[in-house]
């Protein structure tokens, strides 16, 4: 687990963010070399085990049922399908498999029992297993831990202030509560955000400040660039430039020195030279495979060539020392109803409402 080393202020994070770019990259690369092997980059693969039909209104997400994005809904994938996806991922050098389900929150039902089986199946292949299933209770986190889960992902997305313009169906505190439940189950925490959603630099700095202020800091921080999908309220946003991505990776590296910074969605818009700068600035992981949940991702063979060219080595599983085991459950781990009562801010977001209406109209027209 990653201990906090320094308490950062917003002014300091801001100052870092505004440091001349090459100076910032140099500082970040120095920190990276002090805390990590700079040649090692973890390859992770993201598998959407249950796609679409999500009741939330995240303005960036093509899987929100209310927007008409053309994403096809799929039920939970079978154990065999996931085992074979994990083996294919291992064949391209992946040491971590992340399974995502488009749920608001985990429920204590047969679907969750099935996810627990999926976690055990992938863990038995000697891979690090991560899940991103929405909000979850402490006991649900414990069940996943006993199935051999390595990490749980739940992103903060952006600053607390800007979050109110992005999602109305759950609060920032709900997100922080899930992260705290994950910690209580002794799982590693993966939490990051998305840039390019129209947020200010101040929002980016505030999000990093919140993440860096968690005690302990997240073990893993994905930095995503928005992939604007037609039919979502963010469909008109332009891709962010590579310099912003490099800057964000570098600042994340400096304020959370032991964390693995993950270069996540948006890599298709980046040249290999741009990605190389991100690795220099401290990115220690990529997601490989042709899809990231529902959005495109670079070809795995191109990634292998890039690794060869840059002298990078795929990181092996469990090198950080945490080796979760599959354990029997000898206690009642059903959730307390209070754990599952999430707060709702009760506010509306005009763009999300408008695109919900548009979605309804489009679906009606297609009937
Ligand atoms: S980001 Fe997750 S919670 Fe939000 S709509 Fe998409 S699948 Fe649902």
Structure in a nutshell:
With 367 residues, the chain is an alpha/beta fold. The chain has twelve helices and twelve strands.
Walk me through what this model shows:
The protein has a single domain, classed as Aldolase class I (TIM Barrel, Alpha-Beta Barrel). The strands form two sheets. Strands 1, 2, 3, 4, 5, 6, 7, 8, 9 and 12 form a ten-stranded parallel sheet that branches. The longest helix is centred in the C-terminal third of the chain and has 17 residues, at about 350-365. Helices cover about 40% and strands about 15% of the residues. It has about 375 residues and is of the alpha/beta class. Helix 2 crosses helix 9. The chain starts with 9 loop residues before the first helix and ends with a helix. A hairpin with a 2-residue loop joins strand 10 (about 290) and strand 11. The model has no long low-confidence stretch (mean pLDDT about 95). The protein has twelve helices and twelve strands. Iron/sulfur cluster binds near residues 63, 64 and 134. Iron/sulfur cluster (SF4) binds next to loops.
